Amino acid sequence: MKVLVIPDVHLKPWMFERASEIMEKGTVERAVCLMDIPDDWNQEYNLELYNETFDAAIAFAKKYPSTLWVYGNHDLCYLWDERESGYSPAAAYTVVKKLEELKSALPEGNEIRYVQKIDDVLFCHGGITDYFVRKVVPLSKYDDVDEVVRIINGLPRECMWSDVSPIWYRPQYTAGKMYGADKILQVVGHTPVEEIYREGNVISCDVFSTYRDGRAIGTEEFALVETERWECESEVKSK
Fold first, then answer.
1. 9-28: per-residue pLDDT in tens?
2. CA-atom Rg of the chain in angstroms
3. DSSP β-bridge partners for residue 69
4. Cα-Cα-Cα-Cα dihedral of 108, 114, 117, 120, to 10°?
5. Could you say which DSSP state residue 9 is in?
């Protein structure tokens, strides 16, 4: 299956417009959004942009109901009342309300999760380490990827609001062993990178984030992941 990956959004509603254009071409079968929908540099009081971005996400969810969604740290900090860089007290009510609208727009059985799985590919915001799995999953279940995903998706806030959890971990900066190195592929966002790349069993694709002055860090291309062959290509940007 070829999957369009929508990485960290951070108040860029036009990302959903471009993603929709790709979906309409019929070259991908479904999409996965790695979220971090709210928050961007110097936008704490731009409630219009918060609303516009979430409305674009909700419209995309309704148009493409098979799309999978995974929580990012910037989404969860509002639901859990945690403080995060970029957190906007002014937008807190709006974010919580719009996240509820997004959840309500999804079909039954397609909840927003920490980790989503298609074939042998796991999609999550940060990355799943071997250490984290061994910490939260019984040893007898370690090799059962479906059970590992199920257990992680049921973990409480206390386990997930941590530097080593799948919403926070940054494999791009740390040489820790990743879970399932020889049997699964992980697709992650969270950490801004200049281009989409694979290292080991991890594809990093947060290429839409910006510097504080608004300059793009990455290529602003979407990853198109073939989940059976573990192949990844980038969207060819239109001129």
1. 999 999 999 999 999 999 99
2. 17
3. 33
4. -170
5. -
Helix (H) or strand (E) holding 31: strand 30-33
Q: Which helix (H) or strand (E) holds 73?
A: helix 73-79
- Number of Cβ atoms within 10 Å of the Cβ of 51: 16
Q: What are φ and ψ of residue 202, in 5° steps?
A: -125, 125
The whole-model pTM stands at 0.95
Structure tokens at 58: 């909700």
> Strand, coil or helix: what is 23?
helix
Burial of 204 (0-12, 13-18, 19+ CB in 10 A): buried
What does DSSP assign to residue 107?
Answer: P
Cα separation, 176 vs 5, whole angstroms: 24
C-beta of residue 43 within 8 angstroms of C-beta of residue 17? no
Rounded Cα distance, 193 and 189, in Å: 9
User: Kind of pairing, strands 231-234 and 202-204?
Assistant: unpaired
What is the DSSP code string of 111-159? --BSEEEETTEEEESS--BHHHHHHHS-GGGTT-HHHHHHHHHT--HHH
Q: What tens digit of pLDDT does each residue of 91-110 get?
A: 999 999 999 999 999 999 99
Structure tokens at 45: 């009081």
